Amino acid sequence: MKVFIIGIAGGIGRRVAVQLAEAGDEPIGLVRRPEQAEAIALGGIQTVRGDLVAMSVDELAATMRGCDAIVFSAGAGGKESNEATTLVDGDGPGKLSTAAERAGVRRFVLVSVFPEAWRERRMDESFEHYMVEKKKAETQLVLTDLDWLIVRPSALTNEPGTGRVDLGLAKFHTEIARDDVAATIVELLRTPALNRLILELTSGGTAIGEEVHALAIRLGGDG
Ligand SMILES: NC(=O)c1ccc[n+]([C@@H]2O[C@H](COP(=O)([O-])OP(=O)(O)OC[C@H]3O[C@@H](n4cnc5c(N)ncnc54)[C@H](OP(=O)(O)O)[C@@H]3O)[C@@H](O)[C@H]2O)c1
Question: Mean pLDDT throughout 147-171?
Answer without folding.
Answer: 98
